[in-house]
Specification:
The protein has seven helices and 13 strands. The longest helix has 18 residues. The chain has a domain of 65 residues. It is 31% helix and 26% strand.
């Protein structure tokens, strides 16, 4: 195998589960969508092990199945075949989700999806409210998370009073409110301007470092994928398969200056060339 400032790993080779190191085990996962026009193979035979505490980014051309794969991992979309195990528990059983397998999971979408009539604290605390956590306890937890994501002083603000980046911080805090072991993020910064996105990447890196969450992150932005990721999963055009897995050996935490270094840019160039070849 070739080297690109890290390792390109054979996509078919699973990570050895030593001392319970694997948080998510995906085996031969497939998803077909059936319509009157026929069957579309969205994801085909994806196998991937994701380690505890690892930040994995998914990249590929539009329509390659990144979001479909993420939704199957997150219990939002049933696979046609194959399996997903989270901490050793099978996620999907006969098309139904095992609630125990997703009990410690958080999801962040491109749209923050905040309730406009709720304050920052109330939006963050919503998952805790739905779980029956006492009001005082959930508000205390939400206030602490507001501070964690840099929103101290905005606890009583409403979404309309926040910038796009601030609303995404609320969404991240809300996802963290249940102390998830696994955080799934679908283009969470895709609608932000370049400078805000850069700041959010730094902020997310800090938050993940403090919470030690495992993260699976979908993005179209190759530099973002390299900056955040411990490993980058390059998916092929439809049907989405794992084309290659690139390990990023640049030490963390990473500063924006790292994006000027040859090591970083070689990985970016290599991935961009291969995605261009995908057509």
């Amino acid at each position: 195998m070739n080297q690109i400032q890290g390792d390109i790993v054979d996509a078919s080779s699973p990570v050895p589960d030593t001392a319970g190191s694997v948080r998510v085990k995906i085996q031969n996962l497939c998803k077909d969508f059936r319509t009157n026009a026929g069957t579309t193979n969205a994801v085909k035979d994806v196998s991937l092990d994701i380690r505890r505490g690892e930040f994995v980014t998914l990249v590929g051309r539009s329509g390659c199945g990144k979001t479909t794969l993420l939704r199957m991992i997150g219990g939002l979309l049933a696979p046609t075949s194959g399996s997903v195990h989270v901490d050793g528990k099978e996620l999907w059983r006969g098309g139904r989700v095992d609630s125990a397998a997703i009990a410690r999971l958080g999801f962040v979408f491109q749209d923050s999806n905040l309730l406009p009539w709720f304050t920052v604290v109330d939006n963050i605390a919503l998952p805790l409210k739905l779980r029956g956590v006492a009001k005082a306890e959930r508000r205390e937890r939400a206030a602490a998370l507001a501070g964690l994501v840099g929103l101290a002083g905005f606890e009583g603000a409403y979404p309309r009073q926040l910038s796009g980046g601030m609303r995404q911080r609320v969404a991240i805090a809300r996802a963290l409110s249940t102390e998830p072991d696994l955080l799934l993020m679908d283009e969470p910064f895709g609608a932000l301007d370049a400078l805000t996105r850069e700041r959010m990447n730094l902020e997310l890196q800090r938050i993940v470092g403090e919470t030690e969450s495992t993260v699976v992150f979908v993005t179209h932005d190759i530099p973002e994928a390299v900056f955040l990721g411990d490993r980058i999963v390059h998916m092929t055009p439809r049907p989405g398969r794992v084309n290659e897995i690139v390990s990023v050996e640049i030490p963390k935490p990473r500063d924006v200056v790292v994006q000027t270094e040859p090591e970083f840019n070689e990985i970016v160039r290599d991935l961009r060339t291969k995605l261009d070849q995908d057509g």
